[in-house]
Fold N-acetyltransferase domain-containing protein.
Amino acid sequence: MTTKIFKTENAKLTVYPNGPEWDGVPAAAFGDFSCKTPDAGAEILAEAIEWVRRSGVDRIIGPMSGDTWHKYRFVSESDGSASFLMEPTNKSHEPEVFYSAGFSEISRYFSARVPLVHAAKSAPPPTDAFVIETWDGREPERLFQQVFDMSVQAFAGNAFYKPISEADFLAMYMPMVPMIKKELIFFARRPDGTLAGFLFGIPNYAEGPKTKTAILKTYASLERGAGRHLASMFHKSALDLGFDDAIHALIHDDNQSADRSTAEGATVFRRYSLLGLRPDG
């Protein structure tokens, strides 16, 4: 099946019939959703659910634009602060449209803010298992090829994971190159030179070119402790660059990094939900 777009004057929704698996069962993904009114949203959502039901797929995940590499999740709680760079957003009434159609929460996430003057004091114990190095700023395509390779290894076991091609990954991330600060990108390398982890940070340019907030956007590790060392270097480097705060972005509630974020004194300012529906359940 191919992607199908449902659209009216007041609402739109894209159905990705070949979404990721949910508990080992193939699911469709509902993404790119917006509606001016709850009624308009309910109408188009009902049409899409019926279309999926007739296609024989018995699970739906949303909101998700095809996979977790792209935009997904609803904002479920917020302190009212402005959205940060690359954060999912939605109108306040849109999640209820999904709930009213029978969807329920299947995964939870949060973003937290921490003053760098506090976070930068955190120092993990020394290790000989790997060394942390900053990206040298050269060959950005090679940088993202390494990030892609590492992501595939580190995230393959995550819930709702679905692989994408390297070409599609590069098409998503290469346009970000002009915004990158090399001092916020780190690699953990084993003594033999192989990658043990990476961290990708970026200034929160949603606040403007002189933002004082750095976003810890993504990190992954294949060695115990690498993530903590990478985060420590990120915090220290961001503070040295003149940033005041760090955002620990879009962390799964059950991820080990959630505990570390709390231990470093970060305060949750936004929560997110991913929803699911079994149309015949």
Q: What stands out?
A: Residues 38-55 form the longest helix (18 residues).
